[in-house]
């Protein structure tokens, strides 16, 4: 059953991350798999280097579901493995980099644009819902 109140939706059915991850293969294209309190729960797969960017108004949480990646900041690099998460504060420049494909859960305000203050070919303005 699914309840709706305004543009918020709360699902009472569980979500299986493995099942959702099996539904897509494209990289750098977050998929919305849940939402609550104006926040999105998203899943994304990526490999390689993303674009340097920041979000002026949103904090972003990255939780590694499978694989590993490094979150680069201008002054340091933070390696993340399975079961680890990192919160990138608003206004802080960052760039995710993965040597091999990684599967990541994102938790962030629904207004968050994946490339932040940068627009390029990987910008996803309206992420798909799974
Ligand atoms: Ni970001």
What small ligands are held by the chains? nickel (II) ion
As for the number of domains, it is 1
Give the overall form. globular
Strand count, sense and barrel status of the largest sheet are:
7 strands, antiparallel
Got a strand count? 9
Order of helices and strands: EEHEEEEEEE
CATH class: Mainly Beta
Indicate the structural class.
Answer: mainly beta
CATH architecture: Sandwich
Find the CATH superfamily. Answer: Jelly Rolls
**What is the strand content?**
over 45%
Question: Might you state the CATH topology name?
Answer: Jelly Rolls
Helix content: under 10%
Uncertain runs: none
Number of helices: 1
Mean pLDDT across every amino acid position: 92
Computed Rg: 14 Å
Alpha-carbon distance between the two ends: 16 Å
Structure description:
- With 130 residues, this protein is mostly beta strands.
- The protein has one domain: Sandwich (Jelly Rolls).
- Helix content is 4%, strand content 45%.
- The chain has one helix and nine strands.
- The chain has one helix spanning 17-21, and strands at residues 2-5, 8-11, 31-36, 39-49, 60-66, 69-72, 77-80, 85-88, 95-109.
- Strands 3, 4, 5, 6, 7, 8 and 9 form a seven-stranded antiparallel beta sheet that branches.
- A hairpin with a 4-residue loop joins strand 6 and strand 7.
- The chain is globular, with a radius of gyration of 14 Å.
- It starts with a strand and ends in a 21-residue tail after the last strand.
- Bound molecules: nickel (II) ion.
- Residues 53, 55, 60, 94, 116 line the site of nickel (II) ion.
- Nickel (II) ion (NI) binds at residues 53, 55, 60, 94, 116.
């Amino acid at each position: 059953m699914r309840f709706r109140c305004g543009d918020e939706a709360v699902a009472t059915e569980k979500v299986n991350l493995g099942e959702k991850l099996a539904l897509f293969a494209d990289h750098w294209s977050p998929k919305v798999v849940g939402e609550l309190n104006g926040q999105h729960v998203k899943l994304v797969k990526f490999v390689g280097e993303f674009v340097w960017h920041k979000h002026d108004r949103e904090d972003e949480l990255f939780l590694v579901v499978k694989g590993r990646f490094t979150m680069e900041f201008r002054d340091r690099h933070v390696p993340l493995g399975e079961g680890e998460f990192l919160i990138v504060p608003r206004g802080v420049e960052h760039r995710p980099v993965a040597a091999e494909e990684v599967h990541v859960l994102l938790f962030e305000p629904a207004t968050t644009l994946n490339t932040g203050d940068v627009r390029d070919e990987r910008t996803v303005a309206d992420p798909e819902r799974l």
